[in-house]
Amino acid sequence: MLAGQSQKELFVNEAFALLDALVHPVVESEAASPPARPRDGECWIVSSQAAGEWAAKSGQVAYFETGQWAFAQPVEGLAVYDRAARQFAFFDGAWLRAPQVSEPAGGSTVDVEARDAIGKIVTALRTSGILPQV
After folding, report:
1. For residues 75 and 101, what is the distance between their CA atoms, to the nearest angstrom?
2. Which of 22, 55, 83, 86 gives 133 a disulfide partner, CB atoms 3.0 to 4.6 angstroms apart?
3. What is the DSSP letter of 40?
């Protein structure tokens, strides 16, 4: 802010809204158009098929604040938690998510200890949000 700057509170409030959306971001999901009744503070990833009010905003994080949508262009390395998918999404030029991984089953030789260890690793990755919940 500058001394004598008009409407300083608007710039400060806009900065706080952006911080709120991006410091520990949680998105509802990924969508092509805004939800019918968004709540203040709601964030979404704008999908590649963006339309309507979100047209030309593909890949950006849309956040709803004080009755209007604002958008933030993600930078490489940004991670957001996707509530609907129950996992993290990472931005690396595009939004990336870990694929669903099946726990080991079957095989000609069953190694109980190895299967147990791999199962615990898969559980830990799901719990941490790296892999989606089943």
Report:
1. 27
2. 86
3. T
Taking residue 58's Cβ as centre, other Cβ atoms within 10 Å add up to: 15
88's CB contacts (< 8 A; 6+ apart) are 79, 80, 81, 82, 97, 98, 129, 130
Q: Where are the domains of the chain?
A: 18-97, 100-134
Cite the DSSP H helix spans in the chain.
8-22, 112-127
Q: At residue 93, what is the residue type?
A: G
* DSSP category for residue 36: S
What is the Cα–Cα distance from 95 to 45, expressed in whole angstroms? 9
Q: What residue ranges in the chain does DSSP mark as E strands?
A: 26-27, 30-31, 43-46, 61-65, 68-72, 79-82, 87-91, 95-97
- For 105, list phi and psi in degrees, rounded to 5: -155, 145
Where do we find the tokens 């990833």?
A: 45
Instruction: Supply angle C-alpha 30, 35, 41, rounded to 5.
Output: 80
Instruction: Give the per-residue pLDDT at 17.
Output: 64
Q: Which of 6-15, 70-79, 83-92, 125-134 has the lowest mean pLDDT?
A: 6-15
Give the single-character DSSP code of 46.
E
